[in-house]
Write a structure and sequence with these properties.
Two copies of one chain form a homodimer. By secondary structure, chain A is of the alpha/beta class. Chain A folds into two domains: 3-125 and 306-336, Medium-chain alcohol dehydrogenases, catalytic domain (Quinone Oxidoreductase, Chain A, domain 1); 129-282, 3-Layer(aba) Sandwich (Rossmann fold). In chain A, 26% of the residues lie in helices and 25% in strands. Chain A has nine helices and 16 strands. The first copy, chain A, is globular and about 60 Å long. The two termini of chain A are 25 Å apart. Chain A binds chain B through residues 57-60, 221, 224-225, 228-229, 237, 243-246, 249, 252, 255-267, 269-280, 283, and chain B through 57-60, 221, 224-225, 228-229, 237, 243-246, 249, 252, 255-267, 269-280, 283. Strand 13 of chain A pairs antiparallel with strand 13 (257-259) of chain B, so a sheet runs across the interface.
């Protein structure tokens, strides 16, 4: 048995997390029992939701325990199997977290069938949780219709980029929001957004108004803060707001002082009959087959593109997550934990 | 032809409206043309939404023009008819506004069939717009289920009382919120709420927590402000919030300074997958037949009760609306404009 490298949650961050909230340890792996598999992590997905798991505030998911392995989706290879569903060499999508190896009973482990010309890392990207998040949130809550305007932040990130591209396929005008001109250019040129605005620009609010001359029918909420506040005055009648994430407020320790904007949102909801609805991808498991069929087709045809932001080595995962929470990533953030046998 | 008395919107209020924003005039009535009817107003309904029509802020409905007759639903009697759908003496529900008489082409006028023992004033109350608002909002957005907890403010008002009683029929625990112990007692004793809390109490937030030991599944939003902020921390997974009104913020001229509570609501929506949705009753016209059937049955069987707050004479309508906006009413507010021929 090889030894394992694991990244543990050392303590719960108060506000902005730091490297010292994590601990990297080396441990022994147990030997396999009947029904178990040993997987080696190839790619670890880094995602904004992980900030939530570091806290013990009430949520839809149990927090990562202090001293526990950081949670996370991975693309892994089966090294050894005592489970009839898997054989050595199988590429799988699993959720074994921030570690080099893992022993599991195979529950929740999905075998990935590699697609010609598409890296297996997409199993935790456009063809995995982030892609499915975009797909089910639009299908069930956003309901984009031909001719409507959709606004999404983090437009170069894995969820935002996919949201914009699906909405484009559905015939929407798509307006992305991203941090900085490089990401904005990329979102327009590669992901086909009709416009993409830099939320750091002094006149961002004016740019948003100009980019949405017919108002906003779908606002995909994944950041909150300044972008949400700029969107509210432009919401159309019967607009929809799937609430997928709130990255700007995850590390907030106190509510901000200043003007109370809650009445502004409530008035917009009432006046426009807007629907604002939170969701998580795991509520829509029954859509998985449709998602894989549609998204695989769109990726193969080039209608949906994706961009990866790769970080080398598990030791750099904490820094990668901290950067992601600050918007330093450019595309789907992955840690290359070990060699990809399909390359 | 008799002369008419009308209440006009003299000017748009800035903030809290006052009597001087209205003007009472006497006018001549035109003679009837073919297809027209002359109606005499018996009861004029006063409702919180009227504050919205006094403003010209963008909304789902056109504002009342300055110099125009204040808008409002009425129970009226047909005095004269040149329209084959109506005959003199018919009791009708119409929307001819704050005036003693009106000439109309009969569009949108509904003949009321009086129910034994039930006053015709219910045509603008529990068997009219407020009752239908409660019915369609619960059916389409609130979706109360057996064993769930519902919270509604203005629990002695015509919408809130009906919301609570329908939710009770559906098997919910119902917690009302009202202004003062008298209204709270009435809501519990007459409308059958499991609890009713005074939102003016110093420890209202603690009382709410104690009254909702299993959290809140449906929050019927008709007031915003302190009640909404107290509800947010208790929202359950998959909770629903029909947004029907925001009476505490209708006369707000600026957003309140202090803590920004918007992140609090957004976090609750995401964490709980809560659905917050604005609506207006006129979006659900196709539910009208079901509403009349169900509600008539419930009123006749005594499962749904109602309380009226009557004001005498059209001249007192402005004061009645101002009082309603401050919560001075106790039950469905009606102006007795002229004699009820069914009594």
């Amino acid at each position: 048995m090889p030894t394992n490298t694991q990244v543990l949650l050392k303590r719960r961050p108060d506000g902005e997390p730091s490297e010292s909230d994590f601990e990297i340890v080396t441990t022994d792996l147990p030997s396999l029992e009947d029904g178990q598999i040993l997987t080696r992590t190839i790619y670890l997905s880094l995602d904004p939701y992980m900030r939530g798991r570091m806290s013990d505030a009430r949520s839809y998911a149990e927090p990562t325990p202090v001293g526990g392995v950081m949670t996370g989706g991975t693309v892994s290879v089966v090294e050894e199997s005592k489970n009839e569903r898997f054989k050595a060499g199988d590429i799988v999508v699993t959720h074994t977290g921030w570690q080099a190896y893992a022993v599991s009973d195979g529950k929740g482990v999905r075998t990935l069938r590699p697609i010609e010309g598409v890296p297996i890392s997409t199993g935790v990207g456009v063809l995995g949780m982030p892609g499915m998040t975009a797909y089910v949130g639009l299908k069930n809550i956003g309901e984009p219709k031909e001719g409507e305007t959709l606004v999404v932040a983090a437009a170069s990130g894995p969820v935002g980029a996919t949201v914009g591209q699906i909405a484009k396929i559905k015939g929407c005008r798509t307006v992305g929001v991203a941090g900085g001109p490089e990401k904005c250019d990329y979102a327009v040129k590669e992901f086909g957004f009709d416009a993409c605005l830099d939320h750091r620009a002094d006149d961002f609010e004016d740019q948003l108004a100009a980019a949405c001359p017919d108002g906003i029918d779908v606002y995909w909420e994944n950041v909150a803060g300044r972008v949400l506040e700029a969107v509210i005055p432009h919401l159309n009648f019967f607009s929809r707001m799937p609430v997928c994430g709130l990255i700007s407020q995850y590390s907030m320790t106190d509510l901000p002082e200043g003007t109370n904007k809650l009445p502004l949102l409530m008035r917009a909801i009432l006046t426009n009959r807007t629907r604002v609805q939170g969701f998580i991808v795991t509520d829509y498991g029954s859509d998985f087959k449709d998602f894989i069929t549609d998204m695989t087709g769109w990726v193969e045809s080039g209608q949906v593109k994706f961009k990866e932001h790769r970080i080398k080595s598990l030791e750099n995962a904490p820094g990668g997550l901290l950067g992601l929470l600050k918007g330093d990533n450019f595309g789907k953030t992955l840690v290359e934990v070990s060699d990809d046998p399909t390359i």
